[in-house]
Amino acid sequence: RKVTMRFGQNFYLFSIIVIVSLLGRPDVATTTLWLAPIVWDGTFDQKMIDNIYKPRNITVATTVFAVGKYVRFLKDFLESAEQHFMVGYRVHYYLFTDRPDEVPAVTLGEGRQLTVIKTATSNRWQEISLRRMEMIEKLIEKELTGKADYIFSLDVDSKFYAHWGAESLGDLVGVLHAWYFGSSRNHFPYERRPESQAFIPFEEGDYYYGGAVIGGRLDEVHKLAKTCRMQLDVDRANHIEAIWQEESHLNKYFLYNKPSKALSPEYLWDDTKWKRSYLKVVRFSQVVKNYANIRPNP
Ligand code: UD2
Prior knowledge:
Layout: H1 2-23, E1 38-39, H2 46-53, E2 59-66, H3 74-84, E3 90-97, E4 112-118, H4 125-144, E5 150-154, E6 158-160, E7 172-176, E8 209-217, H5 218-237, H6 245-256, E9 261-263, E10 269-270, E11 284-286, H7 291-294
Parallel strand pairs: 1-9, 2-3, 2-5, 3-4, 7-9, 10-11
Antiparallel strand pairs: 5-8, 6-11, 7-8
Helix pairs in contact: 4-5, 5-6
The structure holds uridine-diphosphate-N-acetylgalactosamine.
C-alpha cells in the first residue's frame, strides 16, 4: 500500500511539473531584470487579455512610412495586418508617403481606417528612417490626442504571419531584435562614439531593440519621439550620424527609460534568419529585400 501511495504521489508531482512546463516558457526569460514582461507564445491567455482590453474600446494608431520604392511593400503589409494585427480592435493607420497615388486599395475591416499623409521625397534612405521620430512626435501633438489610446510605429518592409493582439499593449513597448537576442551586450551594435548623443559605453546596456517596432501609450511614445528627435538634431548640428540612425537613439532612450513591456523576437523576426527552437511562432517578420534595388542611395 505504501509503495502504491508513493507511486501515486510521485505521479501527481510529475504531472504538475509537466503541466506547469507546458503552460509557461521554461526555455526563455519571460521578464526583464526590471520585471517587465517579455511577451512569448505560451505566456498569456488571449481570451483573458481581450476581456480586459475589449470593454475599454481602445483605438490603436499605427504609423507606417513608405517613401520612394518602399510603397511596393504596402499591399502585403496592410493585407496581412488586416488578417492578424489587433483584429477586433479599432486601428487607424497613418501612412506617410511621397507617392499617394501608388497606395494600394486594401479592404479594411470594421472599425479600421487609413489616412494617407503626403511627405517629402528624399534621396537618402538614412534621412527617411531618421525623420520618422519627428513625424511621430508631430502626429501625436497635432492629430492623435483624444483620438487614440495607443500607438505603434512599424516598418513597412514586413509582413504579419500570425496573431498580434492586445497582449502587446503597454505604457512603453520595445521589441528585442532577432539578430542580437541572446548575445552579450558588448556585441550589440550600439553607437560607440562618445561624440554622438546615442553613445552607449561597453559596460552598459540591457538588450538590443529593433527600430522597426515602437509602441505604447501616446504620452510615453511622444516623450520618446521628442527626446530622440532632439538628440538627432544635436547630432546633425555636430555633423555626426549614429551608426544605425534612429535605432541607435532608440536604444539609448530605452537604456535610461526602460520599456514597461518587451516583445520577444516573435514580433520582429527576419525572413532570412534561420528559425530557432525558442521561436514557437513568427508573428511579424521583415521580408527579404534587395537594398540596392529599393533604396534611393547605397
Ligand atoms: C533597421 C531597422 C529600421 C531602422 C533602420 C535604421 C529593424 C528590423 N529595422 O532596418 O527600423 O531603425 O535599421 O537604419 O529593426 N523607408 C522608406 N523608404 C526608404 C527607406 C526606408 O519608406 O527608401 C522606411 C520604411 O518604412 C522602412 C523604414 O524606413 O521600413 C526603415 O528602413 P529600412 O527597412 O530600409 O532599414 P533597415 O532594413 O536597415
